[in-house]
Design brief:
Layout: E1 6-11, E2 14-19, H1 30-45, E3 51-56, E4 61-63, H2 68-71, H3 76-94, E5 100-104, E6 107-109, H4 111-118, E7 121-125, E8 129-131, H5 145-164, E9 168-169, H6 170-175, E10 181-183, H7 188-200, H8 204-215, H9 222-235, H10 240-250
Parallel strand pairs: 2-3, 3-5, 4-6, 5-7, 6-8, 7-10
Antiparallel strand pairs: 1-2, 8-9
Helix pairs in contact: 1-3, 3-4, 4-5, 8-9
The chain binds coenzyme A.
Length: 260
């Protein structure tokens, strides 16, 4: 029996989704893109899932890019469709109403960095290397790399990484703002799970409001973004969790949130 290319496993309220093609350094072919989309759809629809952690199988790679062997023979129309397939899946992840943490356990190159960048937080092992090496293949980033890297790290870093195709180590990625934290490889899983547990105990509807504010408000003019934030702020006053969070503070106890 062949192994599934994407695995999903629950650790309490945290769903761990793993790209599972370690012999190909978890390269993304069309089937893997579709399996990831399905896995994230399932996570979105399952109320018991509060947080998602995304990682790659094996000791070497998060994801080493789009599958070069599969891309080699594509026609222009197929190439465009392949880009749109990846972009749709990654936009779905980016707009998921629950936090998604990329556990960057090794190479995150090309489509791999693009996949990490559509997640809401990125924690990298100190052994990780990230880059947009498409130029070395005569390609252009196709799963949103030129757009999300620009928004995350700015024009200078985006042009440097995309034009040279040179990968950078985790420390430099941190300096450029591409990853949130770098931790020793041996501590990566524990660190990410602790962060995931912290987010899983937060008020889910407020988390969703924050994600919406950043995803949608962040792309608008400041007046529209602020109006959107005020609307989200007002909306959480309709939740039991907001009453619980404020009451718990006043009563000097730990809040318990139920997502209502
Ligand atoms: N697409 C398809 N297969 C890939 C791949 C990719 N993006 N990245 C790695 N693989 C495959 C290799 O072809 C190899 O398969 P094989 O054993 O059947 O020959 C296997 O994964 C292991 O990779 P290998 O290159 O032998 O490992 P390495 O440790 O020597 O090098 C990398 C690691 C990441 C530096 C190297 O694999 C690489 O440069 N990959 C491509 C990165 C890239 O350009 N990504 C952007 C694509 S748009």
């Amino acid at each position: 029996m062949t192994e599934p290319v994407v695995l999903s496993q629950d650790r309490g309220p945290v769903r761990v989704i793993t790209v599972n093609r370690p012999d190909k350094l978890n390269a993304l072919d069309a089937d893997t893109l579709d399996a990831l989309h399905d896995a994230f759809r399932a996570a979105a629809g399952d109320e018991a899932v509060r947080v998602v952690v995304l990682t790659g199988a094996g000791p070497k790679a998060f994801v080493a890019g789009a599958d070069i062997a599969r891309m080699n023979a594509l026609t222009p129309v197929q190439g465009r469709d392949f880009a749109l397939r990846g972009q749709r899946m990654m936009r779905f992840v980016e707009t998921l109403p629950k936090p998604v943490i990329a556990m960057v356990n090794g190479f995150a190159l090309g489509g791999g960095l693009e996949l990490a960048m559509c997640c809401h937080l990125r924690i990298a092992a100190d052994t990780a290397r990230v880059g947009q090496p498409e130029i070395n293949l005569g390609l252009v980033p196709g799963f949103g790399g030129s757009q999300r890297l620009l928004r995350l790290a700015g024009r200078a870093a985006t042009l440097e990484l995309c034009l040279t195709g040179t990968a950078v180590d985790a420390a430099r990625a941190l300096q450029l703002g591409i990853v949130n934290r770098v931790v020793p490889a041996a501590e990566l899983e524990a660190e990410v799970m602790a962060l995931a547990d912290q987010l899983a105990s937060a008020a889910p509807l407020a988390l969703r409001g924050i994600l919406d504010c950043v995803n949608f408000g962040g792309e608008c003019a400041i007046e529209e973004g602020l109006a959107y934030e005020a609307a989200q702020f007002g909306l959480v006053f309709s939740t039991d969790d907001m009453r619980e969070g404020t009451a718990a503070f006043l009563e000097r106890r730990k809040p318990v949130f139920h997502g209502r």
